[in-house]
Amino acid sequence: MDEQAEVLYRERKQRILDAVALRKPDRVPIVSPFQLFPYTYAGVPFREAMYDYAKAREACHKFVDDFQPDADFGPVLAYAGKPMDTLGLKWFRWAGHGLPEHAMYQFVEGEYMTAGEYDEFLYDPSHFLASKWLPRSFGALAAFSDFPAMRRMMWFGWTGLLAGLARPEMRQALAAALQAGEELAEWFASLARYAAEIKAKGFPQAYAGFSWTPFDLVGDTLRGTRGIMGDVIRRPEKLLQAVEKATPIAIEYGLSAAGADLPLCWIWPHKGSAGFLSDRQYARFYWPFLREVIEALVARGVIPVIYFEGDETPRLKHLAEVPPGKVWFHFATMDMARAKEVLGGIACISGNLPSHLLLTGTPEDVRRCCRSLIDTCGRDGGYIMDTSVMVDEAKPENVRALFDFTREYGVY
Amino acid sequence: MKDLLVQAIADIQEDEALTLAARLLDAGAPAKTILDACREAMCIVGDRYERREYFLPELVVSGETLKRIAALIRPEAREAAATEPLARILIGTVAGDIHDIGKEIVAFMLAANEFEVRDLGVDVSASRFVQEVKEARPDILALSGFLTLAYDSMKETVAALSTAGLRDQVKIMIGGAPMDDGVRDYVGADAYGPDAMAAVRIARRFAGGG
Fold first, then answer.
1. Which CATH number is A55's domain given?
2. Total number of domains in chain A
3. pLDDT digits (tens, 9 = 90+) for B65-114
4. What ipTM goes with this model?
5. Of the candidates B57, B96, B179, which has its C-beta nearest A230's C-beta?
6. What is the pLDDT of residues A97-151, one digit of tens each?
7. Residue A197's domain spans which residues?
8. Which of A278, A280, A285, A398 would you mutate first to test chain B, the one with the most B CBs within 10 A?
9. Are A111 and A164 in contact (CB under 8 A)?
């Protein structure tokens, strides 16, 4: 790495670490998960970015060069299309698969675990996922419904179980899994290459790991919104047991960030925002488990970035319980002055620049909003500039205003 | 017993509500009595939701309770007992967006508040909205969107209605997580509502000629 890039890299990383530790950096950092924008900006259809990894890297390089964020996501937000094709992923629609070629992928809500299957999940989550969730999620893995239960491999259990792997349908499913694995390896190599390339230019990677809140692991991927909301009333004890079971799993996901140069672990909470659960329900089913994940990650030196996409105003009092100077909360809908009041001295906050402003507003609107955010919650550190939700559609001149103005006005 | 049924649904006592409804029907109660009880109960649920006593779990369970009770009644009897709606509403998630939970809550609360709601589902194209408006002649069109791409889909939908000469015949309201009054201006809608109860208030205002 050339010397100048190395200095820039250190400065950018330190800026973020200082903001999280509630110290005053040299200026307000800008870190934002620009999702679709880098590709539209570079003129690369999103579908192409999902299949042609070199094209995706190229587009992300252009974004980084032109806007110079303090840390960058790169092509990780354009999921690999090939393995999704190979496996026949059912709970996603993406460009060319039910959506136009410029569209961001979207999740297909469903009940991927029925209400009657809680006990099965609780008894052996791995086997439940292998034999029920995988076949329901991936067309090519339908044969996994007969996947051998690994817990019964002991002693001579393997003799009865391994034969099942040799059945023709299972061979076919395993072959698809292998092929997807190879395609994923190619994608991961592309991500690693991109990370090395931007590091050489002086930019840290914005993520070192990803995790989920335990309630959402059960709600998003297994029961679906309608399912889990019904369970809060109909089978609260079972739901609590499942969320408890999901907690160490969520911690395990997030620990992949431990030891990274910039150990940010991003968590996107969904079903705990205002309007979803009452405060009593939140305090019983949601927060204690999310707090446990946050504390476990912090204990291992990971910085949890909790990226709230809804309104968290009624949850602020809970959020104030996290270990001070170790956590970064992103807010979409929030009175930021109030957030600063409650979380000042406790957690770094980011976000709240209305994403629609980047599409529907003018550069002057964006500058005005950035100024107000920096004045309100950036004055003594502990704030990172970011939009309210991940950026897909935006006018480039507005994005430029966001970066340029923050760099200039956000100097401490 | 009708009052008990209202109370059971409103208090989210699902099993009790179903038992009571079945007993009422067995005893020869007219479909109208049961459906009136459901409507009354849903008004209470709506009030409690608005007062932040109820949240999604209560809406989901009471909604499903209602469906299960309605299934106990013969379809002809259900139709005969229908009341005149305050207004007719067409609702859908706009093109390119497949999110449906928020829209369903809004549709549910509108239906519970005596509006006739027809749900076109998700990823509804501008041309389909135009065609449906032309055919069904609703009083209100409710557009839902969860993604920022929905801004342009909404704008296109409103523009397509103007081109088809239908814009003046229907009031348009928008909603969804990334929406606000700025977006309402951008897409050219008549109103924006941040949540399901706001949608009900707006629809009432529209129905009253506002």
1. 3.20.20.210
2. 1
3. 998 998 998 887 777 777 789 999 999 999 988 888 889 889 988 988 88
4. 0.91
5. B57
6. 888 888 888 888 889 999 999 999 999 999 999 999 999 999 999 999 999 999 9
7. 3-80+186-409
8. A278
9. no
